[in-house]
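Anyone up for a design puzzle?
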């Protein structure tokens, strides 16, 4: 068997000191996460994060920076995730758009509110990514390059 990590994307979206998070159903109950999801075939990472934000929040997302590229595994029996975390802004919300399966709502929450509820985080990367963003950690989107051969 060939080992492969799950490649995911996530978005840090801040407005007036509050962060856009999704509340989603998990095996551990309702938890908070950044809008995030799996990288799909035939898309680049920027297209993936735009799609995931739209599907999970009904907001259009304009990525501006890469905040971090993270590798995480909950324990040796669980899958490993390679997560590319972006920051950017949202525009053009469609409140009538149904959200992805498992998403029960979206919330604009302060960091302090999240820090008081560590058991409600989908992973430790939720708060860590916010802290990396707040510390000013940003990398140019030009770091990411995609090369598809279309013959």
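Challenge accepted. My sequence:
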């Amino acid at each position: 068997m060939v080992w492969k990590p799950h490649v995911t994307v996530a978005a840090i979206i801040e407005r007036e000191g509050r962060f856009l998070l999704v509340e989603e159903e998990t095996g551990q109950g309702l938890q908070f996460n950044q809008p995030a999801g799996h990288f799909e075939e035939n898309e680049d990472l920027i297209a993936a994060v735009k799609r995931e934000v739209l599907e999970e929040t009904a907001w259009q997302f304009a990525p501006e920076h890469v905040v971090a590229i993270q590798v995480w595994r909950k324990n040796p029996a669980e899958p490993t995730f390679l997560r590319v975390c972006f920051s950017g802004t949202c525009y053009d919300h469609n409140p009538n758009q149904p959200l992805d399966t498992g998403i029960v709502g979206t919330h604009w929450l302060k960091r302090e509110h999240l820090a008081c509820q560590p058991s409600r985080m989908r992973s430790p990367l939720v708060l860590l990514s916010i802290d990396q963003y707040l510390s000013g950690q940003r990398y140019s989107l030009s770091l990411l390059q995609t090369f598809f051969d279309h013959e």
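A detail worth pointing out: Residues 6-143 form a domain with the Nucleoside Triphosphate Pyrophosphohydrolase fold (CATH 3.90.79.10).
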